[in-house]
Amino acid sequence: MRNQIKKFLALLFAVFSLSILTGCGAGNKQIISGGSTALQPLVEQASINYMKMNTEKIIMVQGGGSGVGLAQVAAGSFKIGNSDIFAEEKSGIDAGKITDHKVAVLGIAPIVNKKVSVTNLSQQQLIDIFTGKITNWKEVGAQDLEITVIGRTAGSGTRVNFDKYGLNGATEVNGPSQDASGSVVQLVGQTPGAISYVAFSYSSKPGIKALSIAGIKPDYSNVADNSWKIWSYEHMYTNKKNDNKLEDAFIQYVADDKEDLEALGYLQTSEMKVDRDAKGNVTKIK
After folding, report:
1. Which of 159, 167, 172, 150 shows the shortest CA–CA distance to 89?
2. CA 240 – CA 237 distance, rounded (Å)
3. Beta strand 80-83 pairing with 177-178
4. Which of 79, 81, 103, 259 would be 237's cystine partner, CB 3.0–4.6 Å?
5. Mean pLDDT for the chain?
6. pTM (2 d.p.)
7. Within this chain, do residues 12 and 86 fall inside the same structural domain, yes or no?
8. pLDDT at site 243
């Protein structure tokens, strides 16, 4: 009974303290930034560094996928919605109500279980595998092993970009799917014959390996000039109705954090030699 009373008093104190903080304006110094799991490692690291320098500010980072990020920032639940896709590419999102901030570029690579002997595929072979026309690795010159295609859930911006630029808009075969990049890596590493796709920042994890396409390696020197076409801008969206200097300052910090960008497997937007819009149109800029 005494322990229950102590727990109740502790809970009451926590609620009371939170109400005081909120009343003093702490809520105005809090940011919830959520959405893309591909962008999540960068935002998490940036938030840690940013809060060390700005101790009065609180930044909470969540995943959930690009669709969640866009929907929640449009609704006002997130201060920042992280996304691998343009808001215009997501049905049900009013892009006119939110502001786009491009903070980085992300390469996306097909990955396989490390024991699969193939290292390179043509784009047509890639399409045929993900659409179910090729079902055994021996059909592309590897060992006699059934292919298991592991996809991403419908809200994944990584899936949108991979299907659009890696599969030329083809529809992936139905099969096991994951909603987070880390879960994809784990499942591919544990499943003989598995193939999937992840951001470059996840592609060198244990148990998996990234594939080249038509002899082109998945690296940022090839992304920069669009030789490697499976890439996306990383967006941090804010709600136009709720825009304020706190979110803008943190977003600018993320975009300028070159050291963490490179260490975690992203590219600064200023390094790109081309630009690409929501429709996929590419323009040379350098």
Report:
1. 159
2. 9
3. unpaired
4. 81
5. 89
6. 0.82
7. yes
8. 63
